[in-house]
Specification:
With about 350 residues, the protein is an alpha/beta fold. The protein folds into two domains: about 230 residues, P-loop containing nucleotide triphosphate hydrolases (Rossmann fold, 3-Layer(aba) Sandwich); about 90 residues, no CATH class. The protein is about 35% helix and about 20% strand. It has 14 helices and twelve strands. The strands form two sheets. Strands 6-7-8-3-9-10-12-11 form an eight-stranded mixed β-sheet, with helices on both faces. Strands 2-1-4-5 form a four-stranded antiparallel β-sheet. Helix 4 packs parallel to helix 6 and helix 5 crosses helix 6.
């Protein structure tokens, strides 16, 4: 196995096609962590991504691929080691005052509503906390009631004096979403927003996010390992593997005609999958401190193992001589795969 020990590479050659000058963008984004022994974990390693108002983008991939780190960098919670995050075309500044203004427009929705809510605070106080911190003007009670109603808790006044332990899991997640909506954001970043919920209420929360997109023009980045969820909710999907986006495009295209071998493996296990047979990936995702050279998926790639890459003459590039970058596949999608680029899939 060849190991890429070079410094982090320059930003990817091209942004994914179909991207727009959205409210929230990343360009050539890298996030690395220094570890004992002089090692560096390259959690995010050259990512371009856009999230525009009025669209839902799903960021999908296995655990450990860098999804949450990328989300945190987009929120300004992690400072990138290279590349830029922009909001409405302006680079994100990491001064306290600038970050405070930014976070009023780009809000986080956490995975675990129970952990996100203070058990000693009423629903009213939980939703009002953000507007108080940001010193939003106007009638606080009206703002809280409007946010709770938008989140589907009606009549809002019924919930004002309730405590988290008195609510169901779905209601607690709606309170967390209401806390974000109280600041009237342009974008929300939701990290596994239904992972901790019962199956019976997951659909309700997903329907809520779709309604907020359609009625309020809210944009959302939904971080998930569940492509079935992405299929239900996303306008666009970005599939991430070991710190890089390997396929990106409209949800219906990516999920009905996956091109990258990793995406095909993920889609193959979905119900009614367009991939004829389930693809079982061998091994685990490599350590982010020991990233393979060439295509970082090559150690697990079913196309390389089957000999398809060798027949196309790209197996050497896959194994170590060239890092694949996102290249236009159609007008609005991109794939980072040597074999796909060769036209021999």
């Amino acid at each position: 196995m060849s190991i890429d020990r070079r410094p982090a590479p320059a930003p990817v050659e091209t942004a994914a096609p179909g991207t727009v000058a959205g409210a929230l963008s990343a360009r050539g984004l890298h996030v690395g962590y220094g570890l004992p022994g002089g090692r560096t974990a390259r959690a995010v390693d050259g990512v371009d991504l856009d999230i525009a108002p009025g669209e839902i983008v799903a960021l999908a991939g296995e655990s450990g691929c860098g999804k949450t780190t990328l989300a945190r960098a987009l929120l300004g919670l992690e400072r990138p080691t290279a590349g830029t995050v922009t909001h409405n075309g302006s680079p994100l500044r990491y001064k306290t005052k600038a970050l405070k203004a930014f976070r009023r427009k780009v809000q986080l929705v956490l995975q675990d509503p129970t952990g996100a809510l203070n058990p000693r605070h009423t629903v009213y106080d939980a939703v009002a906390e953000g507007p108080r911190i940001h010193r939003c003007g106007g009638d606080e009670r009206e703002r809280v009631a409007r946010a709770l109603s938008q989140a589907g808790l009606r009549p809002a006044e019924k919930y004002f004096l309730a405590y988290p332990h008195e609510l169901s899991g779905g209601q607690r997640q709606r309170v967390v979403i209401a806390g974000a909506l109280a600041l009237e954001p342009e974008i929300i970043v939701a990290d596994e927003p239904v992972a901790s919920l019962d199956a019976s209420v997951r659909g309700e929360i997903l329907a809520l996010l779709l309604r907020l997109r359609d009625e309020a023009g809210l944009g959302a980045l939904v971080v998930t390992h569940d492509l079935g969820l992405a299929w239900s909710i996303a306008d666009r999907i970005a599939v991430m593997y070991l710190g890089r986006i390997v396929e990106q495009g409209p949800a219906d295209q990516v999920l009905t005609d996956p091109r990258h071998p990793y995406t095909r493996a993920l889609v193959s296990v979905l119900p009614n999958s367009p991939v004829p047979e389930p693809i079982v990936l061998e091994g685990e995702t490599p350590d982010a401190t020991l990233i393979p050279g060439g295509c970082r998926f090559h150690l697990r790639c079913q196309e390389l193992a089957s000999g398809a890459a060798a027949r196309a003459g790209v197996d050497g590039a896959c194994r170590g001589s060239e890092l694949p970058v996102l290249r236009a596949d159609t007008a609005d999608r991109a794939v980072a795969c040597h074999l796909h680029a060769s036209g021999s899939e």
